[in-house]
């Protein structure tokens, strides 16, 4: 059972969808949001895994909210419609959407990747969150606001050789989030991305199973992480809870690292943050590195 950590944000009565909630980071995020009082719609493909997670949550975490679940394959174009349809059936408003589910995609150099797997990664890691936002925004707007959190990661901010689909789509998700954040700000809707850190989940097991030849230079680091332990997923869950709560009012269009960034003091820096490009994806020019190349 994923551990929930110390209380901070208040999510009492907030209705939130969490995708990929059956295991890994999503399960820990769900536990945290539930502990903080949120009503949850847990989404993943496996009904059995979702049922286990929901029952475990109800048993082990002291939450006051409701727990709902829906099995849906985000690779299917109709999945977002089904998820939002179910959410509308059980709730009259939507406060939070956490696009956490993702797959690793093909591992190995691009020319050896199966393009079908690449397309499937686009569908799950990018088009599904886009479709969920597409349906959630009008509903949140009608309810007076909301908060969307998209799980990104290291692949977004630096090249990740042998993981081209994953890295490309995490970068795309960040630019999508920055863009949507600007579009929906007048409606009181915020959109942020979270980099959860290096977590020892099934994604790490997949990397190790692919072997050093396909994975390349990252393999050794992954093997060390498996031996020594990864970053705590609770930190990511706390950041997601913060971004869904009123505590983070004014913070939008950012990619925030759960483990590297001092986000717990960010609420006191909202004005400074808004006037800056801190925690965004931007192009680096020579002057940024102290060089005059004109
Ligand atoms: N692990 C890391 O080190 C790391 C680092 C940076 C970013 N991230 C990001 O953090 C998020 C969570 O990663 P994780 O490591 O916790 O992943 P994980 O352990 O592999 O869990 C993935 C979750 O997504 C669900 N899922 C997978 N494919 C799906 C589909 N087609 N439709 C619906 N649900 C699907 C899985 O359940 P089912 O299989 O039952 O569908 C599971 O609940 C991802 O966005 C990942 O990219 C992770």
Structural write-up:
By secondary structure, this protein is α/β, with parallel strands linked by helices. The protein has a single domain (15-197, 231-260), classed as 3-Layer(aba) Sandwich (Rossmann fold), CATH 3.40.50.720. It has helices at 24-35, 47-60, 79-90, 115-142, 164-184, 202-210, 212-215, 218-228, 233-244, 270-274, and strands at 15-19, 39-44, 67-71, 96-99, 146-151, 189-195, 255-257. The protein is globular and about 55 Å long. Bound molecules: NADP nicotinamide-adenine-dinucleotide phosphate. The site of NADP nicotinamide-adenine-dinucleotide phosphate (NAP) has 28 residues, from helix 1 and helix 6.
For the structure shown, list the relevant keywords.
about 290 residues; alpha/beta; Rossmann fold; about 10% strand; disordered N terminus; binds NADP nicotinamide-adenine-dinucleotide phosphate
Task: Write the SSE topology.
Layout: E1 15-19, H1 24-35, E2 39-44, H2 47-60, E3 67-71, H3 79-90, E4 96-99, H4 115-142, E5 146-151, H5 164-184, E6 189-195, H6 202-210, H7 212-215, H8 218-228, H9 233-244, E7 255-257, H10 270-274
Parallel strand pairs: 1-2, 1-4, 2-3, 4-5, 5-6, 6-7
Helix pairs in contact: 1-9, 3-4, 4-5, 6-8
Bound molecules: NADP nicotinamide-adenine-dinucleotide phosphate.
Give the N-terminus to C-terminus distance in angstroms: 57 Å
Provide the CATH architecture.
Answer: 3-Layer(aba) Sandwich
The global form is globular
Largest sheet: 7 strands, parallel
SSE order, as H and E? Answer: EHEHEHEHEHEHHHHEH
Q: What ions, cofactors and ligands are bound?
A: NADP nicotinamide-adenine-dinucleotide phosphate
Backbone structural class: alpha/beta
Q: Look up the CATH topology.
A: Rossmann fold
Helix content: 40-55%
Residue stretches low in confidence (pLDDT < 50, at least 5 long) are 1-7
Q: What average pLDDT do the residues reach?
A: 96
User: CATH superfamily, please?
Assistant: NAD(P)-binding Rossmann-like Domain
Q: Which strand order spans the largest sheet, edge to edge or round the barrel?
A: 3-2-1-4-5-6-7
């Amino acid at each position: 059972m994923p551990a929930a950590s110390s209380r901070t944000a208040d999510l009492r009565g907030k209705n939130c969808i969490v995708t990929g909630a059956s295991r890994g980071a999503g399960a820990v995020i769900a536990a945290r949001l539930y502990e903080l009082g949120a009503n949850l719609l847990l989404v993943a493909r496996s009904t059995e895994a979702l049922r286990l997670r929901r029952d475990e949550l109800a048993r082990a975490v002291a939450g006051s909210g409701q727990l709902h679940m829906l099995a849906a394959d985000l690779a299917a174009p109709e999945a977002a419609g089904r998820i939002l349809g179910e959410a509308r059936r059980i709730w009259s408003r939507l406060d939070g959407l956490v696009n956490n589910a993702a797959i690793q995609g093909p591992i190995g150099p691009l020319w050896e990747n199966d393009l079908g797997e690449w397309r499937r990664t686009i569908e799950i890691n990018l088009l599904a969150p886009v479709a969920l936002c597409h349906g959630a925004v009008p509903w949140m707007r009608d309810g007076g606001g909301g908060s969307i959190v998209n799980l990104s990661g290291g692949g977004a901010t630096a090249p990740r050789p042998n993981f081209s689909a994953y890295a490309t789509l995490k970068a795309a998700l960040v630019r999508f989030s920055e863009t949507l954040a600007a579009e929906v700000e007048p409606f009181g809707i915020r959109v942020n991305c979270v980099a959860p850190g290096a977590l020892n989940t099934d994604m790490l097991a997949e990397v190790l199973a692919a072997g050093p030849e396909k994975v390349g230079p990252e393999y050794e680091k992954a093997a060390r992480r498996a031996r020594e332990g990864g970053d705590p997923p609770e930190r990511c869950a706390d950041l997601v809870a913060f971004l869904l709560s009123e505590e983070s009012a004014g913070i939008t269009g950012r990619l925030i690292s759960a483990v590297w960034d001092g986000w717990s003091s960010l609420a006191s820096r909202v004005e400074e943050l808004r006037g800056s490009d801190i925690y965004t994806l931007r192009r680096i020019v020579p002057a940024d590195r102290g060089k005059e190349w004109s």
